[in-house]
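Archive transcription. Copying these from loose printouts into the bound notebook so they stop getting lost. Printout 1 of 2:
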Amino acid sequence: MELSEKSEKLFRAMSVFDTSKGGTSDDSWNLVDGLLSMGKGLMEMKKSGSQELNFEQRKELIVSMVEWTRGIGLFVKAASESKGQSIDLSSFGIDYDNSVESPIKRAMYETQGTFSLPHYLENLPKKAQDVEPFAYNGMSHFIDSLESKCPATTEFKDLFVKLEDYMACFKSASSGSKDFKVDMSRKSQTLFKAMSVLTGGSGISVDSWRMLDGLLTMGKFLVDMKKHGSNEITFEQRTEMVGSMVKWARSIGLFARMASEKKGKTIDLTPFGIFHARNYGKGNFKTSSEL
């Protein structure tokens, strides 16, 4: 089926809703604009082939997805309200008010393209069951942003792959997997090797020990939080979460900076907020419901 035919069918489906006003409403235009933006982004990515995406390309992809989801969300919300049913889009993280950016987008780009940990921690979850996905989401974005600032070598790429692989072990631990210890031992060895390559094979340095301690602290917290299920997390648990995540991010950042300097590249960790964020461990933070 040709694109023009599919577009016509989509337009007719949209026009069924009163809110569409024949396809001329703001919500209709938001939807169409979001679809076009996402399509354009995917076509541009296709041209890159097997090449590794640079920061600008990743940023464009994220922005396109945000516009796509927001456009669809706005239209569906308006259409549902015209039928007497309200939809809350806030849980999707797309902030249907166009004057407000999503938490992830704001955290990624508010400090010149660097993931800002303090900004991310402003949206702490309230339920224990939401802590793990929140933490892994933040950790993934932090690693991606940090990697973009390191030398673009195979050794650094391998480190960050092994790092995410290692942290994923704690998911199986929290689910009660019997293979956790074996899996952890294997991934610990591969991570240690990746770290050793960047330290020049000089064994475990202070930065290496600090990083391993940060990883284990974060992992232990996630495993413990899993036990609380749907319970609302306490102030002490929120404080522990912030402290664990700050320690985790700071330790990885310091190791990456040390390893990068060995390759002749200096990394400024200030924009990440991993030093300023120590204040958040004393209760100077808010949950998303308190903002």
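Printout 2 of 2:
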Amino acid sequence: MEQQPIQVIGGGLAGTEAAWQIAQAGIPVILHEMRPQRFSGAHHTEHLAELVCSNSFGAMASDRAAGLLHEELRRLGSIVIGKADEHMVPAGGALAVDRGQFSQDLTTTLAAHPLVELRRQEISAIPEGIVVLATGPLTSPDLASDLHRFTGMEYLSFFDAASPIIVGESINRDIAFMASRYDKGEAAYLNCPMNQEQYLHFWQELSNGEQVELKDFERESAKFFEACLPIEEQARRGEDTMRYGPLKPVGLSDSRTGERSYAVVQLRQEDKAGKLWNMVGFQTNLRWGEQKRIFRLIPGLASAEFVRLGVMHRNTFINAPQLMLPTLQFKQRPNLLAAGQLIGTEGYTAAAAGGWLAGANAARLALGKTPLSQPPTTMMGALFDFISSASPKHFQPMPPNFGIIPELGKKIKNKRERYGVYRDRSLTDLETWKTSW
């Protein structure tokens, strides 16, 4: 009997990973992507797995939450993390990629797989059969309405924001200096130093900057996600809030003077050629004219040329604790799975992880096998256990973090040492779990 193809809806990170895992399991898959027929408010290209915000997947070190998730996915054969490793650009201790090459390579690779059919069309209703929903936080209105009818629940929402990107040649290198915090790894960040007077002036202007006005329904229903808090919102929380956040000067000194600044704005390389630089932590909802005026107050950026200004958009997600199993199956329809920001995980790597598990389990359903759930002592297992068991009343998007992993059997006061033990346990349990499939 001919195997019916599994349908994956959405060609972002989660959908791309899910489709690849299904095809690698020997099952035909149809990957539906509405671009370029229809674009969301955040996408700019028709490529799969387009990175619409930062180009960073987070810390590389495996004793960091994001880095541990990277390593788990490497060991599971993730195509997203594999391609991220191939297209990495210097970013100190972070895994950052040349976003153009990264998404183009994934598009070419998926399209060339003999079991993957890429269909450029919008899907307005959930199909029959085995389906993976990976439509992301900007699901098209018709499909969102059908999902609402299926679940009987309204979406939850929060606001997400993207940082500006600057042409490297427009940055004054006589002022900005190359360094990574604590001299960790290669000097990969451009740092714009501020003295106290410059910082206070910048803080005041930023605090009073004019934002894009939210629509009534957005203002009433949405919340800011703390990990992507707009820079102007941080400024309004207090004079020193930014100095303890993205403008923290600790661990940075100008090798030309040996001095540490009062505050530092960091720029991270966007592409392999170093022609484009991202303002780290500067996601914003300021009006575009205000962005240019205020951000050019930063020393070294007086003549900054912006290739992309910051934008903010509403992200939507379902109430996963009421609807989902840790296998990423819907409770009321086990052959319907979902992954990515749609289910309330936050971050690129978490989207890839969800895509991996949803894809693997969709393939197992097609093969008549029992779906997998991962040990909660792994970062992947802890993340999906959380989104399926958290309090539905207070559910908010969750990034990978050690706070959701079960405690160790012993107390370890040193945080770095404790995280290292978490890592060792996670990777050991992952390898043991892999042998049980």
